[in-house]
Amino acid sequence: MFDRIVSDAGILGGKPIIRGTRISVEFILELVASGGSVSEIVSNYPFLSENEVREAILFAASTPSECGIIVNC
Q1: What is the pTM of this model?
Q2: Which of these CATH numbers, 3.90.226.10, 1.10.357.140, 1.10.10.10, 1.10.3720.10, describes 5-62?
Q3: Which of the 8 DSSP states describes residue 28?
Q4: Which of 2, 13, 19, 56 is a plausible cystine mate for 28, CB 3.0–4.6 Å?
């Protein structure tokens, strides 16, 4: 379901990230929480696609609250 979100203990301590980057789901949510739109995020981080940003948001929304988005469980 989330083919662009991965976790690797050697990258950002295992935080869920966008595959092939060091951009965490947590960071994307911080950008959204501070008022950033998907298009603004992609404009500022052109190596990300709109689908990747949306997938990160959906991943966070579907993650059980006891797991959080800091570390994949």
Answers
A1: 0.85
A2: 1.10.10.10
A3: H
A4: 56
Give residue-wise pLDDT tens across range 38-65: 999 999 999 999 999 999 999 998 876 6
- Alpha carbon 43 to its chain centroid, in Å, reads 16
Determine contact, residues 62/46, Cβ cutoff 8 Å: no
Both tokens assigned to 67 = 């797991």
Domain residue spans in the chain? 5-62
Distance CA 8, CA 16 (A): 8
**Token digits of residue 53:** 């940003």
SS3 of 29-68: the string is HHHHHCCCCHHHHHHHCCCCCHHHHHHHHHHHHHCCCCCC
